[in-house]
Amino acid sequence: MNDKPGNGAGGSRDIKLTCPCCGARVGLRADNGARLELEEAGHAPTFAPGTMFIDTHAHMISRTTDDYQAMARARVVAVIEPAFWLGQPRTNLGSYVDYLSTIIGFERFRAGQFGVRHYCCVGLNPKEANNQALADAVLEVLPHFAAKEGVDSAPDGYLPWFEVPGRASAGTPIVFGHWAALGLIDRPDLLAIDTGCVWGRQLTAVRLSDRAKRSVACA
Fold this sequence. Notes:
alpha/beta
């Protein structure tokens, strides 16, 4: 970093920074609202063949999509997002549900657009656990989110909708998606065809007349 006096009024200064992901030079002028300006184009760093990185502590929910693009360019293949405190205590269950739905659902989708796998840690924040009513409500819904990855991780007593005994649609063939963790399921009464294209896996099509399948790589 280069810190040198500038020519602006009020003793302003220019600060030169280098992006660790792409090597681009950016300038920060302290007298214009701390505005970052790109000064020269970056370049993709060089790595040994097969080099990959995992960011084990990345608060991505508060970062821009451009950061995922820079990470992918720098060979980051996965991130782990820690449980996040918003800066002030949440006071109702709805706020927690919105947060958990975003970090487990949309944030995974956002990372997947760049081939980055998103993992996260979730839980009741200690600062908010002193609110006993909120703590009890959050702990009651947490198993629903802990079971997000796939059917096998569901807590005791929980079933995927298509395994519920006596369901009204039993025996009627159903085709569905939007559950990439399941992968491809093909049985007489059920066809799950979400094979995780948005996560960098495959896009799958099925011809219903004879169940012929075609998958293409999305990475």
